[in-house]
Amino acid sequence: MRCLECGSAVLWTFTEAGKRLAVDAAPDVDGNTAVYRDGTGTWRSRRPTDELPVMGWEKLHRPHVATCAGPRARPGAAPSLPSGVADMAAYRRRNRSRP
Predict the structure, then answer these.
(1) SS3 (DSSP) at 70
(2) What is this structure's pTM?
């Protein structure tokens, strides 16, 4: 899959808590997330610890939020909306100052 913000390849994984987490598709030795495929083919991720280090069947990846170069990653950058979609937050900000 591709990130909708920057277009990079990502893997969508499920954490131990059942939450979805996007990680960079390419393994990274400096990553902090262990990723593996379970018996059903689902990508799983977890945070390695001293008690449970990276196992032989896991590879280290970086969470994509740490490497995303999309517009939301830059502070203060306005998200780009699809054509034909109004930015209601900007409308509300303008009208809030009216009496």
Answers:
(1) coil
(2) 0.69
Query: Rounded to an integer, what distance in angstroms lies between the CA atom of residue 42 and that of residue 45?
Result: 10
Two structure tokens written together for 91: 């409308």
Listed by start position, the domains of the chain span 10-96
CA distance 21 to 12: 6
Does the structure show a pLDDT above 70 at 99? no
Mean pLDDT of the chain: 86
Residues 66, 17: Cα–Cα separation, whole Å: 20
* pLDDT value for 85: 85
User: Cα separation of 11 and 44, whole Å?
Assistant: 10
